[in-house]
Amino acid sequence: MSERIIHILVSSFTQILIPGIKVTIPLTLASFAFSFLLGLFLAIVQVANISILKQAARIYIWIFRGTPLIVQLFIIFFGLPRVGITLEAFPAAVIAFGMNLGAYNAEVFRSAIQAVPQGQTEAAQMIGLNYPQTLIRIILPQAFPIAFPSLFNNLISLLKDTSLASSITVIELFTTAQQIASRTYEPFALYCEAAVIYLIFSTGLTWLQSFLEKKLEWKTNEKYLNAAKPE
Q: What is the pTM of this model?
């Protein structure tokens, strides 16, 4: 590797890293928070068996899982102004990523809720809990540990997908790498450097996932051990 390339990589590292911290990470977290709430709502609508809402949720999931994310980004950022709705690049990206991932999170939540034994619901109804109370106090606390690994995997995938925001002028990690590559004429080195930074972020999230899964498993086991203790 030539001294020139080494100099470019060293000088550009913080230039790429800072937008990653200031833009890519917030974009990932905001989009995931939106997708989490949307996915949970869509899952509850489906398991509640409210006919019209269930069908609407299934159609939504079908559309957003069946069309490319880049197309959804372009429709929201470039297409909506044609009908009088203009959004800045960052909120447009949050909405697009959130709506797309919400369809996947909905299926994660739905399968997790359905994995909770039906007897739990029946027992809750026998002691006088209505459906919302049963959902909040009985079903969701058991469903969340089941859904957690898949949800966190979706978060890590979302972090990498945010590179698509460069296509709608969001100045994030990958956009900055592109700009530097266009000035230095070293695309291979700069894109590899961007890949390394994405890898660092993803590895950090992977470690966090492992830590939280162990904590969650420990708390769940402790709960069942305490419940099994004689009075």
A: 0.91
